[in-house]
Amino acid sequence: MTNDDRIGPPLLGGERETLRAFLDYQRETLAMKCA
């Protein structure tokens, strides 16, 4: 398995920023698994 360089989504913050960070994290996870 490759090195996990993903940055986890923040636990605190505004709703929009938290959602965007969570979606970016999920996109990075999918890209890592499909690589």
TrEMBL record:
Superkingdom as given in the UniProt entry: Bacteria
Question: What name does this protein carry?
Answer: Mini-circle protein
Q: What is the lineage of its organism?
A: Bacteria, Bacillati, Actinomycetota, Actinomycetes, Kitasatosporales
